[in-house]
Specification:
This protein is of the alpha+beta class and about 350 residues long. It folds into four domains: about 80 residues, Translation factors (Elongation Factor Tu (Ef-tu), domain 3, Beta Barrel); about 60 residues, Arc Repressor Mutant, subunit A, CATH 1.10.10; about 70 residues, Arc Repressor Mutant, subunit A; about 120 residues, Arc Repressor Mutant, subunit A. The chain has 13 helices and 19 strands. Helix 6 packs across helix 7, helix 8 packs across helix 10 and helix 12 packs across helix 13. The chain starts with a strand and ends with a strand. Pfam families: Beta-barrel_SelB, WHD_2nd_SelB, WHD_3rd_SelB. InterPro entries: Beta-barrel_SelB, Elong_fac_SelB-wing-hlx_typ-2, SelB_WHD4, Transl_elong_EF1A/Init_IF2_C, WH-like_DNA-bd_sf, WH_DNA-bd_sf. This is Selenocysteine-specific elongation factor. One of its GO terms (biological process) is selenocysteine incorporation.
């Protein structure tokens, strides 16, 4: 464990404090052995102050602003004391100007400056409010006010219950745009990337809900667009050449001729032909509805089947599989595939052997 501290030595010491001196740290009622790493000078002389990182041999519970006393390991003489600036720092190198500047801000700055500096240094950890409180040593209401100010100044962004510095948000935005650009160049006939794939490649530490918040934010900034859980750049469009347009017409004609009486699989439509598979991929969500990982149907026919269902339930409160089969004149298997799609898309909700509107 480590502590970043401002340490002041008493006057009239025979020798000052140098790198790796062993000390006894007194914090509250505890004595902890530690090593000293002066950060802003080679040697802290008697009567001087300096920034020091204490490398502790045991863990302690402390907060910013706690005071302490230090004695030499041997002989056991009191040499000074100070204030804890950071109770959970990373390991520092000596004479790092960024570290020293950050310590000055934390020592003297306003709470919002301290929090901003903390978030800058924890770009991949996404702390919650309790972790920020623990770091800053401030009360919850004060931390909330400071965060609200930083958010209003566009310096901090909140995702769920996590906070990130705007630098990290911009980095995630840049990486997302880069990912989509490379994907569009490689797969010109695909509409985009599934949200879950974006999450796994951009920030796997995010839960699905947290990635949704980030992507919605990027969408409101007109950086990306989201359609049916597929993410793409705002200005990206699938453009078919003449040959591909002919293939699209054939696929559309075949699916329309099947209606709801014969739902086809993706493999049946693409027939193992790479060109057909690519064009079919580009049609999903537009002319083609993907029912699940296997089955597809014509989009217009799908919408008609959905409207028939909704109107029936509005009049009758509920519907069974058999009733739906009779309504659209299809097989039990096909109706089950369609109804399960409606359930997943929150159009219907299954209650025992019946469906109601979601």
């Amino acid at each position: 464990m480590m502590l970043d501290v401002k340490l002041s030595l008493v006057n009239h010491l025979d020798k000052g404090l140098k790198h790796w001196d062993r000390l006894r740290l007194y914090h509250g009622t505890r004595e902890i052995l530690c090593r000293a790493v002066p950060l802003d000078k080679e040697l802290i002389e008697s009567g001087e102050s300096g920034y020091v990182q204490l490398r502790l041999e045991e863990s302690i519970v402390s907060k910013k602003g706690d005071t302490f006393v230090v004695r030499r390991y041997s002989p056991m003489e009191t040499i000074g004391g100070g204030v804890i600036i950071d109770p959970s720092p990373k390991k520092h190198k000596k004479f790092d100007e960024k570290v020293i500047e950050a310590l000055k801000i934390k020592e003297k700055g306003e709470l919002k400056d301290i929090i901003e500096e903390y978030l800058k240094r924890n770009l991949k950890n996404y702390p919650n409010i309790k972790e920020i409180m623990s770091y800053s040593g401030a009360h919850e209401e004060d931390v909330k006010r400071a965060l609200e100010t930083l958010i209003s100044e566009d310096k901090v962004f909140i995702i769920g219950n996590m906070y990130m510095h705007i630098n990290q948000y911009n980095k995630l935005k840049e990486n997302t745009i880069k990912l989509l650009s490379e994907y569009h160049k490689k797969y010109r006939l695909r509409k985009g990337i599934l949200k879950e794939e974006v999450r796994s490649k951009i920030e796997s530490n995010f839960k699905t809900r947290e990635m949704d918040i980030l992507l919605e934010k990027l969408s409101t900034e007109n950086a990306i667009k989201i359609e049916n859980n597929i993410v793409s750049l705002l200005d990206f469009e699938v453009i078919l050449n003449d040959k591909q347009k002919e293939i699209a017409k054939k696929i559309e004609k075949r699916l329309k001729s099947c209606g709801v009486s014969s739902i086809l699989t993706i493999d049946e439509v693409s027939e193992g032909n790479h060109n057909y598979a690519e064009v079919l991929e580009s049609m999903i969500g537009n002319k083609v509805e993907k029912l699940d990982d296997l089955y597809i149907m014509d989009k217009d026919i799908y919408e008609n089947a959905k409207n028939i269902l909704i109107n029936y339930i509005k009049e009758n409160k509920e519907i069974t599989l058999g009733e739906y089969r009779d309504l659209i004149d299809s097989s039990r298997k096909n109706c089950m595939i369609i109804l399960e799609n409606f359930d997943r898309n929150k159009i219907t909700k299954r209650v025992e052997n019946k469906r109601i509107l979601f």
